[in-house]
Amino acid sequence: MNEIHWLTQTAVDRLLAELAEREGERREELVKRIETAREEGDLKENAGYHAAKDEQGKNEARIKQIRHLLEHSKIGSPEVAEGVVHIGQVVTVEFADGDQETFLLGSREEASHSTVDVLSPTSPLGAAVLNKEVGDQVKYSLPNGKEVMIGIVEVKPYS
Asked: Residue 138: pLDDT above 90?
């Protein structure tokens, strides 16, 4: 079963541009580097050849990843009731000591261009707040096993 990824139009545009660059210019440049390195002879000890092949593999893997993401994504955010935490929303939580943290619950593809921290809905904190409402108190486990209680203070759409 494939999970639907909710992305902003900006993130989709960025991914499409990256895909075009990786399938075009970058792919051609890597093929040329491999051909040039092959012409140098003995491939077993040719570091340039091995580096180019490694980079080519990483490029092809990223192309596959982007295609998969775009095929399984929707633009925008799902319809949810106001005040309920869902993917694509900015959430403010308050810890027992009064400190607050604000983050976007979303895809890592949003993280590189977001003005707010981005947490995955599968992260411990993200999973704990998903589908909860403003005013709810939620407990989640830290990586060290300690449990932390938080309150959901605010939920608003990401803009």
From this structure: yes
Tens-place pLDDT, residues 3-34: 667 777 778 888 899 999 999 999 999 999 98
User: What CATH number has the domain spanning 89-157?
Assistant: 3.10.50.30
Domain limits of the chain? 5-75, 89-157
Alpha carbons 21 and 58: distance in angstroms, whole number: 14
CA distance 125 to 127: 6
Distance of CA 120 to the CA centre of its chain: 7
H-type alpha helices, 72-135: 108-111, 124-129
Tell me which residue of 10, 12, 18 sits closest to 73, measured CA to CA.
Answer: 12
**Structural domain 5-75, CATH architecture:** Orthogonal Bundle (1.10)
Closest CA to 102 of 110, 94, 92, 111: 92
- Written as one letter, the residue type at 12 is V
pLDDT, tens digit (0-9, with 9 covering 90-100), for 48-71: 888 899 999 999 999 999 999 888
